[in-house]
């Protein structure tokens, strides 16, 4: 007489099988694998159980086992899952809730942008209706060199992208606008070190912004988010206080988009 495994036992087996899959994913390099003995020892599971739990993973092409060495490695089924997941991602959707929470935490206007050289394009905006409304609007374009969002994107692009911005011209729009390419280059280096950028009344005379990059599944910069407010409220001290929150939100969105950059590690 055969017995059907209880739902609890099935759930436990599934969790342990997923633990094995994650362990192989995290602890092997490209093209390598992991031995049966190592999996069993490191996860504290006997070898026969590892073999039982990996069988359905192999059947689903999530794992493969080398015929010669007997080592396990990820199968092409994981790639298919990843491709389906990545194709379903959308920056605006992934950022919607984090952007709303950031606006509630800061009490200021929050923006989401993408880069279309040499400009940034605003694709979302969440603002506090009780505050003075920002001049920005969804769909508008602003030259990247004079915005925090633009600078935080440029900081993670190559020299050619920097050249495009400089060639397009850097005229001043306020007395604080950075118009010297050498000064902008130095500022981008600082942005890379600290993980966020500041627009100190460079685009609008009475507005300060702090922005952070957003990275995609290739760890390439794909956009940026910012918190903007009147300079009377967004004082330099307030900017320093809120900048780490903005940077962390950017990493959270990046993580949702498949980036390996960790919000916990802060890089």
From TrEMBL:
Entries under Pfam families matching the protein: HTH_IclR (PF09339), IclR_C (PF01614)
Key word DNA-binding present: yes
UniProt keyword list: DNA-binding, Transcription, Transcription regulation
Recorded superkingdom: Bacteria
Residue ranges constituting the HTH iclR-type domain according to the UniProt record: 11-76
Domain IclR-ED residues, every copy: 77-259
Listed name of the protein: IclR family transcriptional regulator
Organism whose genome encodes this protein: Streptomyces scabichelini
Lineage, top ranks: Bacteria, Bacillati, Actinomycetota, Actinomycetes, Kitasatosporales
